[in-house]
Amino acid sequence: MKKRNKNLIEGNIKKQLFDLAWPMLLGMMGMVIFNLVDTYFVGRLGVQQLAAMSFSFPIIMFINSLSQGIGIGTSSLISRNIITTSRKNIKMMASRAILLGVIVVVIFVIVGLLTIRPTFIALGAEKDILKYIFDYMNIWYLGVPFVVIPMIGNNIVRATGDTFTPGMLMVSSGIVNIILDPLLIFGYGPFPEMGIKGAALATVIARSTSLVFILIVLIKREKLLTIYFGRLKDIFSTWKNVIYIAGPASLGMLITPISIGFITKIIAGFGKEAVAAFGVASRIEMFALMVIASLGSVLIIFIGQNISKQKFKRIFKSLNYALKFSMIWGTLVFIILLFFGQAIASIFTDDLAVIEITKKYFYIMGASYGFQGLVMLSTASFNGINKPYPSAIFSIIRMLVLYAPLAWLGSIIFGIYGVFWAGLIANVIIGILSFSVLHRTIKKVRDK
User: Fold this and answer.
1) 436: how many CB neighbours lie within 10 A of its CB?
2) Where are the domains of the chain?
3) 3-state secondary structure of 193
4) pTM of the model
5) Residues 110-119 pLDDT 10s
């Protein structure tokens, strides 16, 4: 099994960013298609099941945010040390990060299983939808280890400069889910008809394949895992370094599902069709922005390695390329949604009310996707320079200070479309502000 580790402190910046980003893009595409396929097949079951999956979206984002935070913290730590630190120390860092992830998994699986009813009642789920939420989440929670550990493992491998292997593992997981979804949901051949339970089980099985393969890569190829974690003092030291990034990163990402939960509750007041539409639109939005998200993940690695060698000229060039790309891509996506928004929405449901609301979401929020991309790129870059707190602050301002309050006010004055206009305003303001502050922060680090 060939290693693909890369030195990113010299060479053509555009080529390096492209070479790192396209495997990440494929991987993210696999994961987003993963979610879209779930949405498509569950949508065939009916609006109630689709609404149940939409209610689960903030909780799934919550768990993903925790695991991504640990993964980002690990990736930042390793990328800033991979050039200057011994392989033995990198191995210890990686192993201790995985251990931290296991502990987080155990805690949140237990808490999650015990709080399904009160959590989703608080989100506004009605009795007829709650039974489907139980069916889905009871299985999904048991698969959390297969979500969290591969996410951390993939970030470890990416930090070495290899984005190809994690990307292909994510694609493989998506393919397994695509195959299993219709078999387990509708019961073809020897497979039982499980309905929404089948969607959850397909997800768990697909994620488990990622767990097996990433452990093989980390143990056999990279030799970056060990059952010897060293002294307790050293374990806590590594955890402290990971959590220094992971804490604010997780907080920043957790703000999103918490706020989305609040916004879902506002939208629930407009009926189950509105909730279903919001769920469909959110998943398609993830698909639309995954190109920028892949570039953001790459910037953590690129900036982490370059800042360890004080290569600030290379860092500023990479950010300039990222800025232009985000605005061009966001504009392109918006144009596509203007012309094909209704057709795209109709893929996932034949309910006319759901299609109409989804289409209007695209028409309004789509205009802000380039700026939303700037928020994503800024967040990643702050973590790459070991300055995680601005990321959390901007996430809090975007979601809690702007989006959520404006969504509440907008829903009262303009109805459901006021919620969407609130999202646009928040994206534009924070996109401009966060990228400006990022540049000033890096200049201050350079001039010290």
Assistant:
1) 12
2) 13-447
3) coil
4) 0.75
5) 888 898 888 8
